[in-house]
Write a structure and sequence with these properties.
The chain has a domain at about 40-115: Jelly Rolls (Sandwich). The protein is built from no helices and nine strands. By secondary structure, the protein is mainly beta. Strands 1, 2, 3, 4, 5, 6, 7, 8 and 9 form a nine-stranded antiparallel β-sheet that branches.
């Protein structure tokens, strides 16, 4: 069995892509589609990779902790009862367990993520 490398680039060219969409009952507008390149899946519920979404708006609810860094595009995230946050290239943020609100992709958005469940 080959040893697992200890350095792992976050590289969409060498990771399998998964295609998806938010559940239909969560979509508010548009026809958003997702592409996800899950580069790392470690014991204990740790995931890292790149996610991309096309324009649309849907309800989100987080049970996990997630760090995100926007690579491209424009999105608007709004927490229930909270402010409207516009996200662009270079923005980083954390969504904590219990976060509820909406995610709206204005321009196709790509982000790097690290998720801990």
């Amino acid at each position: 069995m080959a040893a697992r490398p200890l350095f792992l680039p976050v590289d969409t060219d060498h990771a399998a892509v998964e295609e998806g969409a938010p559940p239909a009952d969560r979509v508010i507008s548009g026809d958003p589609k997702f592409r996800t390149w899950n580069v790392e899946e470690a014991e204990g519920g740790l995931y890292a990779g790149v996610w991309e979404a096309t324009p649309g708006k849907w309800r989100i609810q987080y049970d996990e902790w997630e760090f995100c860094h926007i690579l491209s595009g424009v999105s608007v995230v709004t927490e229930e009862g909270g402010p409207v946050i516009t996200l662009r290239n270079g923005d980083s943020f954390i969504l904590r367990p219990g976060f509820r609100g909406t995610w709206e992709v204005i321009e196709t958005t790509r982000k790097e993520y690290v998720i801990r469940v």
